[in-house]
Amino acid sequence: MNIVHRALCPVLMCVVLAACSASDSPTDPGGTPSDTRTIKANPSFANDITEIFTRRGCASSNCHGNGAGGLTISTSGSANHARLVNVTSPMSGEVYVIPNDAQNSYLMKKLENRQGSGNGSRMPVGGSALDNVDLANIKNWINMGAQNN
After folding, report:
1. What is the largest CA-CA distance in the chain?
2. ∠83-88-94 over CA atoms, to 5°?
3. Over the stretch 120-135, which tens digit does the pLDDT of each residue have?
4. What Å distances lie between residue 106 and 5, 89, 92, 94, 120, CA to CA?
5. Where are the domains of the chain?
6. What distance in Å separates the CA atoms of residue 47 and residue 79, rounded to the nearest whole number?
7. What dihedral do alpha carbons 75, 77, 83, 85 form, nearest 10°?
8. CA-closest candidate to residue 136, choices 26, 7, 1
9. Which of 5, 29, 35, 141 is deepest in the core (most CB within 10 A)?
10. What pTM did the predictor assign?
11. Residues forming beta bridges with residue 117, ordered by sequence position
């Protein structure tokens, strides 16, 4: 191998690797190369959905960890499930999570900014909208019956 080939090989490898970034991923358009989140057909509430709430800061003290908007979210999957599924929001009068009906669940309306006027802002307030992976997993969990799994 001559010196030109030895010099160009590392450069070509960098170009190829840069072109294969996670932003081209069909499952997570906004992720990073180490991000292995995927859309699941039947996500687990404890492992997948509560992880989203925790990662996105919903359970923090400056958000629903402090009961903002009448809803308390924690890092406990079972507690979160009990507070969301078939529970009516004291603010809107709508049910947070209607099993098998993501379209009409208030949680999805808030996450997708479909809550209507007078029902506050898109969640998370002040943060970026959830990406396709997180939204799809929450929808799939609701549409698969919103199980406490």
Report:
1. 73
2. 130
3. 899 998 889 999 999 9
4. 59, 8, 9, 6, 12
5. 38-143
6. 13
7. 140
8. 26
9. 141
10. 0.75
11. none
Rg (C-alpha) for the chain, rounded Å, is 20
Phi, psi (5° rounding) for residue 88? -85, 135
List the structure tokens of 76: 């406990």
What does the DSSP assignment read for 19-40? HT-GGG-SS-TT--TT------
Q: What is the pLDDT of residues 32-76, one digit of tens each?
A: 444 589 999 999 999 999 999 999 988 887 888 777 788 989 888
The Cα 81–Cα 148 span in angstroms is 6
